[in-house]
């Protein structure tokens, strides 16, 4: 029997739904909650665990579960919502979302991808940070063109210098 798990991730908590048993529970989105989650899910020996991409709140769970040797896939929230609409599930609560994610994983069997290694994740974080700093530089340069007050101009120049040093 194939066992799949859907997890709805929020800032403070994870709602979990296991199929086909229908068991549901919640854990905190912190290190203690992740240890509890990995231990509880390992007991089920699931074939797949699905979580929606949530802008980063899912990263601790993904890393913890993958490190525990569990098969994890991060799915597109828009695809899960379209799947829920096709099933006629209009209600939207975290426990319902976890059940829908589990059903989506069971029905679509998305490809499980290996977790990126630590060096790759670090490089990706650094690339993201560089892009953010470049965007801040552009914003400050644009501000400098519109500000007339001498004190504001000096402030912008100091900030631009610091941002450019950070890029070096």
Oligomer designation: single chain
Strand arrangement across the biggest beta sheet: 3-2-1-4-5
Helix count from the secondary structure assignment: 6
Provide the gyration radius in Å.
21 Å
Total count of domains: 2
Note poorly predicted spans. Answer: none
CATH fold category name of the largest domain: Nucleotidyltransferase, domain 5
CATH superfamily of the largest domain: ATPase, nucleotide binding domain
Mean pLDDT: 90
Question: What is the H/E order?
Answer: EEEHEHEHHHH
Can you identify the CATH class of the largest domain? Alpha Beta
What percent of residues adopt helix (DSSP H or I)? 55-70%
Reported for the largest beta sheet, the result is: 5 strands, mixed
Distance between the termini: 55 Å
β-sheet strand percentage: 15-25%
Q: What is the SS-derived class? A: alpha/beta
Q: Using DSSP, what is the number of strands?
A: 5
The assigned CATH architecture of the largest domain is: 2-Layer Sandwich
Shape: elongated
Q: How would you sum up this structure, described in words?
A:
By secondary structure, the chain is α/β, with parallel strands linked by helices. The chain is 57% helix and 16% strand. It has helices at residues 31-44, 59-67, 77-86, 94-108, 118-146, 150-167, and strands at residues 4-9, 13-19, 24-28, 48-52, 72-75. The longest helix is centred in the last third of the chain and has 29 residues, at 118-146. The relative contact order is 0.13. The model has no long low-confidence stretch (mean pLDDT 90).
